[in-house]
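Researcher: I'd like a structural prediction for the single chain below. Treat it as a standalone chain; there are no partners to consider.
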Amino acid sequence: MSDLTKMKLAEARDALRAGDVTSVELTEACLSAIEGAGALNAFVHKTPELAREQAQAADARIKAGDAPSMCGIPMGIKDLFCTRGVASQAASRILEGFKPEYESTVTTQLFDAGAVMLGKLNMDEFAMGSSNETSCYGNAVNPWRRGNDDTALTPGGSSGGSAAAVAADLCLAATGTDTGGSIRQPAAFTGITGIKPTYGRCSRWGIVAFASSLDQAGPMTKDVRDSAILLNAMCGHDPKDSTSADLPVPDFEAMLTGDIKGKTIGIPREYRMEGMPEEIEALWTRGREMLADAGAKIVDISLPHTKYALPAYYVIAPAEASSNLARYDGVRYGHRATLSQGEGINDMYEKTRAEGFGHEVQRRVMVGTYVLSAGFYDAYYNRARKVRTLIKKDFEDVFAHGVDAILTPATPSAAFGLGEMKDADPVQMYLNDVFTVTVNLAGLPGVSVPAGLDKQGLPLGLQLIGRPWEEGDLLNTAYALERAAGFVEKPAKWW
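Model: Treating it as a single chain, here is the predicted structure.
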């Protein structure tokens, strides 16, 4: 039974339709795996009763011949997605006890397609973090280890619980969200595939907001084909979300031919950072060679404003967070501080937010409030917005000159130990996003594909950046890279 959890989404879909396995059997296998993986702290709100109910309904649909691709597939949902009647805390104490009376658009679409929810997954608080160390539930833990070293490693962030659960075969797939790399970086750290679609491709309605102009939902899966299948189920126009694109959603899976002959792949010279580890440089070089061997034309390109991306991101994202998180005041829902006699509403606001928000969220709210304040708005926020426009234009110019996709490293290193960055300058942690934030600032699709191991046996990923709205073409290039890399390694079970 336990081998069932090792199935990929596409394999399970075909087995379910053929009658070789039932959704109930798949779901029970996953629930057993979750119970035995407490050390990973990936699932933080388990929903076994709901899962069994959904699995039975999925089996009935399959038997009746009404089986979309996701029908009967057990998966995990990041705690940022509101799910009706199920705790949806965004890994924050300030939303303790909050159980929405509504369903996010993405989870509604997944459940309509017959997907089975095993539970909610751990994450950095309000999606602010690169290591899953800011969660009110405690750290999620990477199922990978450095050789014989027992050091607990980060699964990345903010979608660390999603990455850990998929890599450890606790579920067949998971949802993630990506504001500055929060799908792609954890995917790279755990040896799985993760895609951030074009901004507007997936509805943000019912997803707890961090930075509204940057946030985008996407799939985290065991391979590229599974990402294509899950992305199809998550996408679509939503009239409830003003940023949702009213565009047709192609069949992404059908576009996976692996043929990239004649495609042009750009290699941005600005991504060769000073002090880049040799292993990352070597992996990037190998990625170029693999795509060239598959028939692609490799060209050097320039994205001149890349060096300003991190500073611009860490002005814009906290500014939007400061605005979005102003609603958590203890009045309508979530945590409310206990007041002493004589204290008033201002005291309640201050105490509630001090008790409810963790240190990283407090830091970003303060930075955001500062850059939006009178006297600093033009100096910081408006300047960052102008830089963002220049970064977006860099990509537009490159694509206008015939480049189909851009190849870069996904992360500047393999997964690091939990706690190893704790005493570092916060900027050191922010540098984890150095290769990913440009994609969010420009609103482009980006995918991380596992492509090798470092000398300590940890997975490393390569990132492909595509043209807007061309996720199908991007996934096909990722599929060619995946086949050439031949990455099949899995973490040795210790949990």
